[in-house]
Amino acid sequence: MPEPTSSTGDNKSLPPGMVLGPDGKPCKICTAFRNWKPADTPKRGQDGSKPAPGIAATMAAMAAGGGAAVSQPDSDVRPEYCPPDVEQLGRATWTFLHTTAAYYPEKPTQNQRANMLTLLRSLPVLYPCSHCASHLDTNIRENPPDVSGRIALSRWLCERHNDVNVRLGKPEFDCSIKKTDERWKDGPSD
Ligand code: FAD
Questions:
Q1: A single GO molecular function, which one (predicted)?
Q2: Could you identify which of 17, 95, 114, 116 might form a hypothetical disulfide with 147, taking C-beta atoms 3.0 to 4.6 angstroms apart as the criterion?
């Protein structure tokens, strides 16, 4: 898969933060909502009534090279009726993966190990954010999953999440089992 282009200011026809997919077109699921929401999108009700022309027209304009048609967003808040962006998808996926690791058996059967490996190896193939999937593919090849038990798996997953955190300029998480269990299984002790 070719490395997708991310608009980081070098491409003047794209708004900052807009990410292109492997097809060279703006990739909605690869981009944070605040970076693709057009400023002049008419307001909808919370139930999503009165569809706005915003994103479809924006994407079409962007794909056609009409970047100037898009102005900066006037709000970073992603309305409930909108499809997930890269951040909501990420949070939901990490929640699922870390929680599944936290409840994975201490001594998994061969069948459980095989299924966990299948789940993890399917992510780079199926994850909808293409550049996230591409980075994860490289990451998993360099750091094969440790599915030998829940403590090892929780640490392995925490370290993969930290790889993304570092790449995005976010703080690293303490990958001790005490901290991952506190966050994803037991809650704070007091
Ligand atoms: P998240 O990073 O989503 O974390 C959710 C919660 O997990 C945090 O609040 C914290 O309590 C806890 N946490 C944080 N770090 C760890 C850790 N190491 N171990 C255990 N718990 C932790 N976004 C991009 O913009 N570019 C990418 O290339 C990209 N790649 C991704 C690849 C994968 C496989 C996934 C699942 C997501 C990816 N994302 C990517 C999304 C990104 O990781 C975040 O989910 C998103 O930016 C939202 O971040 P957040 O600050 O809300 O917290």
A1: flavin-dependent sulfhydryl oxidase activity
A2: 116
Q: Residue 168, Cα to own-chain centre: how many angstroms? A: 11
Within 6 A (CB) of ligand 1 lie: 86-87, 90-91, 93-94, 98, 123, 131-132, 135-136, 158, 161-162, 164-165, 168, 170, 173, 180, 183
Using a 10 angstrom Cβ sphere, with 0-12 exposed, 13-18 middle and 19 or more buried, the burial of residue 186 is exposed
> What 3-state class would DSSP assign to 20?
strand
pTM as predicted: 0.81
Q: What is the pLDDT of residues 5-43, one digit of tens each?
A: 444 334 557 788 888 888 888 888 899 988 876 555 555
Residue range(s) in the chain whose domain bears CATH number 1.20.120.310: 86-186
Phi, psi for 53 (deg, rounded to 5): -80, -5
CATH code 1.20.120.310 for 86-186? yes
Give this complex's ipTM: 0.99
Residue 4 pLDDT greater than 70, yes or no: no
